[in-house]
Amino acid sequence: MKRFLSFTAFLCLATAYLQANRPNVLIIFTDDQGYFDVSYYNKKDIETPAIDALADAGMRFDNFYANCPVCSPSRAALLTGRQQDLVGVQGVIRDLELNTWGYWDPNSTSIATVMKRNGYHTALVGKWHLGLESPNLPSDRGFTHFKGFIGDMMDDYYHHRRHGHNFMRLNYGEIDPEGHATDLFSQWAVDYIGDASEREEPFFLYLAYNAPHSPIQPPEEWVEKVMKREPGITEKRAKLVALTEHMDYGIGQVIQSLKDNDVYENTLIIFTSDNGGSLRFGSDNGPLRDQKGTVYEGGLRVPAVVVWDGKVKAGSKNSHTAMTMDVFPTIMEACGIDWDGPIDGVSFAPVLEGKRVDVSDRAMIFSRREGGIAYNGKTIEAVRIGDYKLLHNSPYESFEMYNIEKDPYEKNNLLEGKTINEYPRVPHFTELRSRLALHYQQRGSIPWQPPVK
């Protein structure tokens, strides 16, 4: 007599099979890490052996861009796969009522929610910066486990306050741990990986450091080590290097925990930064122009590495141009998850296999809304299609345009000396300007402030 599985039993077996064959996912997202603040680029005065080891074990992306030159919008892009202002996060979300410039649309879907629906245990350790109350807390947006800081920057890495408020949380509850924030986040990630390795379901861990964001407050012994090793280094630079190297040490501990718990081989690891480095605090963006906060290359281009043991060729690198919001669809494709919701990012999963993804016609749009005298609540933006980039780095200044392929350091403004009426005669200007205009219209329909109570 033949025996047949019930549909429910078959579905349970199929789900178990999919879960067992899907990779774990670890995203390591650093804060304000300059393009040259990794020693695989900069051999001059910084040592990041853990990040370098990731590059040796996986694929280095040399043309990776943050969606925005500041924190909150890039995080929104990462978690939604959307242009950040199309989910309501136009600028930095702060705890200051008259100086906050975004509200994450509660109707948009986070990658954590999608992963959770598809059998993943989801966790965030570290910095949130996408809302200070429900419905925009990590536990509201798909994270089963959250341990970290919901605010923007810390006023002190040891006391974890911002404007006198304690924003450290375990899920919804306030906590007040002792220790340097970088050490805490690294240890909490290690603890989570140990626990997650004992579960049957795969895990999705988003590890978001505050470092090397200001205040530049590394442990003193790390500063002493850098000063001793690098004669002639300025104190400002030494502190930034020390804060970065201290974080790199924590990253090494996290990667080692994957290996110690026998989950490294089946974990997709994505490392990158939320935006470029801040020169005034000692960051190094190499020869790239300008810094965090601007839509020049120094504010947007960031280090990035992808590791997947046995799937991604070790020690490889590529020139594929990718953005923060591309991480979402890439993870979906790599994990075999169907996502039919809105998406603006482009998966680079085929690139990880050595294939090519044609993005030559893609419009890469970068934008930021901000307050203060320099912005007065207005936006700055840039758009790049192919080799050409049009940017408006101040609401009070003229457009600039560059051929990034020929002029990667933005020294030759193709609009220099021309009147506004002459701009359309410059090749590619009209195409770029029209694409920006379309984006202005699209984002104009998206609320970016919370509903009035």
- Share of β-strand residues: 15-25%
**Low-confidence spans: pLDDT under 50, at least 5 residues?**
9-17
Q: Which percent range fits the helix content?
A: 25-40%
Question: How far apart, in Å, are the first and last alpha carbons?
Answer: 66 Å
CATH class value of the largest domain: Alpha Beta
CATH-defined architecture of the largest domain? 3-Layer(aba) Sandwich
Number of helices: 11
**What's the assembly state of these chains?**
single chain
Shape: globular
Task: Specify the CATH homologous superfamily of the largest domain.
Answer: Alkaline Phosphatase, subunit A
Taken in chain order, the helices and strands follow as HEHEHHEEEEEEHEHHEHEEHHEEEEH
User: Which structural class should the secondary elements be placed in?
Assistant: alpha/beta
- Examine the coordinates and then state which fold CATH places here, giving the name of the CATH topology of the largest domain: Alkaline Phosphatase, subunit A
- Average pLDDT works out at 95
Name the strands of the widest sheet in spatial order: 8-7-4-3-9-1-10-11-2-12
Number of strands: 16
Number of domains: 2
